[in-house]
Amino acid sequence: MAKLLSCVLGPRLYKIYRERDSERAPSGVPETPTSVTTPPSSSWDTYYQPRALEKHADSILALASVFWSISYYSSPFAAFYLYRKGYLSLSKVVPFSHYAGTLLLLLAGVACLRGIGRWTNPQYRQFITILEATHRNQSAENKRQLANYNFDFKSWPVDFHWEEPSSRKESRGGPSRQGVALLRPEPLHRGTADTLLNRVKKLPCQITSYLVAHTLGRRMLYPGSVYLLQKALMPVLLQGQARLVEECNGRRAKLLAFDGNEIDTMFVDRRGAAEPQGQKLVICCEGNAGFYEVGCISTPLEAGYSVLGWNHPGFAGSTGVPFPQNEANAMDVVVQFAIHRLGFQPQDIIIYAWSIGGFTATWAAMSYPDISAVILDASFDDLVPLALKVMPDSWRGLVTRTVRQHLNLNNAEQLCRYQGPVLLIRRTKDEIITTTVPEDIMSNRGNDLLLKLLQYRYPRVMAEEGLRVVRQWLEASSQLEEASIYSRWEVEEDWCLSVLRSYQAEHGPDFPWSVGEDMDADGRQQLALFLAQKHLHNFEATHCTPLPAQNFQMPWHL
C-alpha cells in the first residue's frame, strides 16, 4: 500500500538513460544496505514507456495544467469581464465554487488512476524505489543509480547547499538578509530630502513600477520563465539533456541558493581528457530564453573544456523567478559548487555568457576577482536603453524607474569592478541589442560595453583622440573594413605591448591605469586601437546564431 501511495504522489518519469559501463559499481565492492540493484543494461536504452492508464491520465493532467496556466495569465481580464457582466455576485459565485470543487475531485481521481498505472509498471516501481532510497541515504551508489533517470526535477534531492563551504562566512562575510551583494542604483533625484511627504508622493509611482516589473516586465525580459513556453520546449529540452548525459557523460545536480531557490545544473568533466583545456572549467550563463540543455554550453564543449551549465531561476528545473537578486544568488551558489564540490580553483574558472547572461557573468567576475577570465557574447552595457527601445516614448519615465528599481542589469558597472582578462564578442548583424536597426552597427550596445570598460581601465588613453578613433573602428561591420581602419592608423603592436608591459612592471596590474598621460595624440590613438582590437572580436552573425567552437578564444592579457 505504501508503494502505491508513492506511485500516486511520485514525480513524472520521462526517460531512462543508457547505463554507462564506466559508472557501474566495482564487482568486488558490496552494496550499501539502502542501495538498489539496477536492471540489465539492455533495458536502459529507451524512453520510459508508461502503461495506457498512466499515459492517458498524464495527458488529462497536463491539459488541465495548461488550462490553469492560461487562466492564471488571463485572470485580470476575466475578472474585469465577469465584474462588468455581474457574475461576481454571491448567488453566482457559490454554484461556480461547487463546479470547481467537483472538477478538483475529478482531477484527484485521475491522479489516483495514474498512480495505479505506475504501480503496475515494473520500470516505475524500480525508479521510485531508487528515489526513496536516495532520499534516505545519499550514498554514491544510490546517486549513481538515480542519475540514470530523467524525471520532474522538484523531486531530485539537493546535492549542494549554499552554506556548505565551511570558510564562507570567514572569507566573504556571508550574504545579507536578501542574499548576496548587488550594486544599487543611485537615486533618480540626488539631494532631495527623504521626508515623509516625499515618500507619500513617490508611493503611487513605486507601486506602479512594482506591478509592472512583477507582471509584464519580468516576463518580457525573461520569456524562458513562462510556463507555456517551457511546456512547448519540453521535448527539445529532454532531448538536449539526454545528449549531455549519454554522449558527454554529464552529471546533473540540484543546488540550494540562499533565497531557497533550487538551481538545476549540468556538469561535464573533461579533466581526464588529453587536451589541456579540459583542466579549465567554463561556467555558462544562458540568455533570456536559453536553457543549458540547448544553449551556449555546446560551444565550450566542442572546444574541449570542462563545462558547468545552469538554468536561471524559474527556467526548466530551477525554481523561483529571475529577478536580479535571485539571479545573483543563483550564480553565487553555482560558483561555490564549482570551487568547493567540483574542486576547481578560481584561477581555473572561466565565465562565459551569452546575451542577458552577461549580468550574472559580470556579477561573478566582480564578486570573485580571482576568476581566470570573462567572455561575453552578444551582451550589453545597461538594460535601460534596450527597454526604452521596445516601449512607447510616453512610458519613458515609468520604464526607467521600473528597470532601475527592480530589473537593474548594470553589466558595465559590474564588469569595471573586475581586474582580469575580458573578451567581448559583437554580433555584426545583431537584431536584439541594437537600439535602431540591425544594420546600424553603431547602435549595438556591445560598443558601449567596450567603451565603458576601456574608459575605466585606461582613462588617459581613452581621452578625446583615443575615443574618437575607437568609435571609427567600431563602425566597421566586416573584417576587411576593420583591418583597413587598423592599418590606416599604422598601429605598431610591438610598441604598444612594450609600453603596457613597462607600465605594468612599474605600477602593478591594478586598474585604472594612468598610462598615456605623457603621450602625444598619435600614440594614444595607436594604443586605443590596439586595446580595442584585443578586447572585442566581431562575429558576422545574428543574435541567436550559435557561436562556433573556433570563435571561442581566451581573452588577451599581458
UniProtKB/TrEMBL annotation:
Domain of life according to the entry: Eukaryota
Keyword Membrane carried by entry: yes
One Pfam family in the UniProt entry: ABHD16_N
Biased composition (Low complexity): 26-43
InterPro entries: AB_hydrolase_1, AB_hydrolase_fold, ABHD16_N
BP-aspect Gene Ontology terms: monoacylglycerol catabolic process; phosphatidylserine catabolic process
AB hydrolase-1 domain span: 281-407
Family (UniProt): Belongs to the AB hydrolase superfamily. ABHD16 family.
Name of protein: Phosphatidylserine lipase ABHD16A
Lineage, highest ranks first: Eukaryota, Metazoa, Chordata, Craniata, Vertebrata
